[in-house]
Design brief:
heterodimer, A: alpha/beta, D-Maltodextrin-Binding Protein, domain 2, 2 domains, 5-stranded mixed β-sheet, 18 helices, B: mainly alpha, MetI-like fold, 13 helices, 0% strand, maltose binding (chain A), SBP (chain A), signal (chain A), transport (chain A), Sugar ABC transporter substrate-binding protein (chain A)
């Protein structure tokens, strides 16, 4: 890219603005002008908070015309993003899951984020949760700025847990760090709630069964794919141990054997279960329900010294466009920086901020229950690399479907494992369309 | 899945000259047809041909162009894939579960509604109303009805001391549950076709047979059912094609689960094309499915031909 006079000026302006304000608050960009298209996939509480953050950006940068588009999450979103970029009409900035971003990179659809460009906006690798930053690198290069880590966590009903005698004198939950302790806690909670100990989504949802399986399986050190998805390395013994444990929970009636996403939320919100397992984003749902609950790390059931939990990150990416110039890039990075500076708003929705200046602040540590499970970001296990892998991918559908049959009691762990292996082998043998 | 095209059976007696001898064909007619033809070419024929071409390439959704030539590779892969055959079977199984009830029940309810002395409008509305609901609304209503623990059916059955299966969560029950939803939803369309058919039957046939001492049951068997033969053929074929096209209910209510038990062939196409980005392969699967639908249509055509000769 050749350096033009305008680019040089705007770059200097951005750097000057940064120098004046340091790291606090939204970076004002009074001199930045132009339009900015931004795509995201946030609904519910996340959607409301994202709108707040965008409004703050608009106030701070009155000369930038920001138009934000919210699309339904999942495959349609990534399809649209890919097609818009191929058609040379991409948004300037877009949200992507970290586990889906690599597919976009291998398709050549994302702009590399060079350290020099990032530095002009005060962004550098050492300011992020190392795990989230590292997991997003492709051949050592950055293509995505993580704004959070969203791990699988444990929600618990504080009234039920107190009644069941599971809380210590300070009101904290005793660690459930072995299969026996976990099962025992579920049994006590079941007695206290009168219905179920815990609840996890099984029906019409393959992501949640995958998340709980992946969390436990990685605590055992298990991996599913290698060589960017070309090899299946599923460990039968470890998978069987996890699946047998999961099946014991529904078989004994501690967990309902067939709850869908909304149903499992209702079961927990109605006090029919003491524990609920899902990504932290459901925090808003239960805050709105005004129920007595708290959140903590997903228990380290199998890990011993090693903790691991399934997670993904939301990242901001800059799709590649033929007419990208330095001014446009700086405008985009201004928005990225603004999102990072508003990590507090974002963290209210449950997400663990990836931006260390906020994550390490006293303000975040005082945020409960959000900061209870902040350590999950450092033990996050992202979906294995592969063109068919990532959040909402066929990989998750294949794995989650098989896990759901075990949870629902329709298949034995051994049958589920052979089903997983068969379908994964098919995918691993298929030539990558990317 | 709904059907957009309504094919009316041609009236039994057609006095006009055969179409090719009618005045007004030729250039002027083409002019009138042009707006339709342009759209038809642009949105039906064009994409179909493009799809056919694509099915012979390893086309990717996230790469420009057709990518490498695959020959019949995509077709052989599909025919050897157990996922292809199982999803095709799910579509067929759904068709088998929905078509007979949607014909028989539509006929029975149309007959009853036609005989109602008072409040006929109410019955017509009651049976047709669900049909105008969008698939997402229908899905949400029935997800609530089927929800384990909290749903309408389970709560109702518990009150009378019965336990209910896990409607959408059990691989064996999921398809019948979806079929039941679909029957409730789309019955109204066939119902209206039958109602129209019933009104075309001359009343004097019933009066004459009543004078000869025919019972109502005999009237239904000997007059109504034979006189409705054309309507039944039409309803049957439209229904088979509509059922083969099933996608929405499953995609929303079960996402093809549990454990792929309700993944229809169209969802398989969607999964491969849009989730796995393999649009070339997905196009090949679509073409294979297109052949199946074509065969069904051909059978219908043959039956209609025979019926027309018979009259």
């Amino acid at each position: 890219m050749t350096l033009t006079r305008r680019a040089l000026l705007s770059g200097t302006a951005a750097a000057a603005a940064l120098g004046l304000t340091g790291c606090s608050g939204v970076t004002p960009g009074r001199d930045t002008r132009g339009s900015l298209d931004y795509w995201n996939l946030f609904g519910g509480g996340d959607g409301v908070r994202m709108t707040q953050m965008l409004d703050a950006f608009r106030t701070a940068n009155p000369r930038v015309t920001l138009s934000a588009v919210t699309l339904a999450w999942g495959n349609p979103y990534y399809t649209k993003l890919a097609l818009a970029t191929l058609g040379d009409k991409p948004p300037d900035v877009a949200i992507s899951h970290l586990t889906r971003m690599k597919t976009l990179v291998s398709s050549g659809l994302l702009e590399e984020l060079r350290p020099a460009d990032l530095a002009r906006h005060g962004i550098s690798a050492d300011l992020f949760t190392p795990r989230a930053w590292q997991a997003g690198l492709v051949e050592g290069k950055a293509y995505a700025i993580p704004i959070d880590t969203h791990p699988f966590v444990m929600f618990y009903n504080t009234d039920i847990c107190e009644k069941a005698g599971l809380l210590d004198s300070s009101g904290a939950l005793a660690p459930l760090d072995s299969p026996e302790k976990f099962t025992e806690a579920m049994r006590k909670a079941k007695e206290a709630s009168g219905a179920y100990g815990g609840v996890v989504t099984i029906n019409n949802d393959t992501s949640t069964p995958w998340r709980i399986f992946q969390s436990l399986y990685s605590q055992l050190g298990g991996e599913v794919l290698a060589d960017e998805g070309r090899r299946v390395v599923l460990d039968d013994a470890k998978a069987s141990q996890v699946l047998t444990f999961l099946q014991s929970l529904t078989r004994s009636g501690l967990f309902p054997a067939g709850s869908d996403y909304q149903g499992s939320i209702a079961t927990f919100a109605n006090g029919q279960a003491g524990f609920y397992f899902q990504g932290e984003w459901e925090i808003s749902t239960f805050q709105t329900a005004k129920m007595p609950f708290s959140m903590t790390l997903f228990p380290n059931v199998f890990g011993g010294d090693r903790y691991a939990v399934q997670a993904d990150s939301h990242t901001l990416v800059i799709p590649r466009r033929p007419d990208q110039d330095q001014a446009g890039l700086d405008r985009s990075l201004l928005l990225v920086r603004s999102m990072l500076d508003q990590s507090k708003t974002w963290a209210e929705g449950g997400h663990v901020p990836a931006w260390l200046p906020f994550r390490e602040s006293a303000e975040y540590r005082a945020m409960t229950p959000q900061s209870n499970y902040s350590a999950a970001a450092d033990a996050a296990v992202y979906d294995a690399e592969g063109w068919y892998s990532g959040s909402g991918s066929n990989f998750e559908i294949v794995m989650g479907s098989a896990v759901a049959t075990v949870l629902g009691g329709q298949q034995s762990p051994a049958d589920a494992i052979s089903q997983m292996r068969g379908q994964l082998l098919n995918l691993s043998k298929t030539a990558s369309p990317i | 899945m709904t059907t957009e095209t309504v094919v009316r059976p041609r009236p039994a007696t057609e006095d006009g000259p055969p179409p090719e001898q009618r005045p007004g064909t030729g250039l002027p007619a083409l002019g009138f047809l042009a707006p339709f033809l342009v759209l038809y070419l642009a949105f039906i024929i064009g994409p179909t041909i493009y799809g056919l071409v694509m099915s012979f390439f390893d086309t990717s959704l996230v790469k420009p162009g057709l990518s490498g030539f695959a020959g019949f590779g995509n077709y052989t892969e599909a025919l050897q894939s157990s996922d292809f055959w199982s999803s095709l079977w799910h579509t067929v199984w759904f068709t088998v579960l929905t078509t007979p009830p949607l014909i028989v029940l539509a006929f029975v309810f149309a007959l009853l509604a036609d005989r109602a002395k008072r409040g006929r409008w109410f019955f017509r509305l009651a049976f047709f109303a669900p049909y105008i609901l969008p698939s997402a609304v229908v899905a949400l209503i029935w997800i609530f009805i089927y929800t384990p623990g909290l749903g309408l059916i389970e709560t109702g059955l518990l009150k009378i001391g019965l336990t209910s299966p896990n409607w959408l969560g059990d691989p064996n029950w999921a398809m019948p549950s979806l079929a039941l939803t679909t029957i409730w939803w789309t019955l109204g369309f066939n119902f209206v076709l039958y109602l129209a058919g019933l009104q075309e039957i001359p009343r004097d046939l019933y009066e004459a047979s009543a004078m000869d001492g025919a019972s109502p049951w005999q009237q239904i068997r000997k007059i109504t059912i034979p006189m409705l033969a054309r309507t039944t053929t039409l309803v049957a074929v439209l229904q088979v094609i509509a059922s083969l096209k099933v996608f929405d209910q499953m995609y929303i209510m079960t996402a093809g689960g549990p454990n792929f038990a309700t993944r229809s062939i169209l969802q398989y196409v969607y999964d491969e094309g849009f989730t796995n980005f393999r649009v070339g392969y997905a196009a090949a699967v679509s073409m294979l499915f297109f052949l199946v639908v074509l065969m069904v249509s051909a059978v219908w055509f043959a039956i209609v031909r025979r019926q027309e000769k018979g009259v």
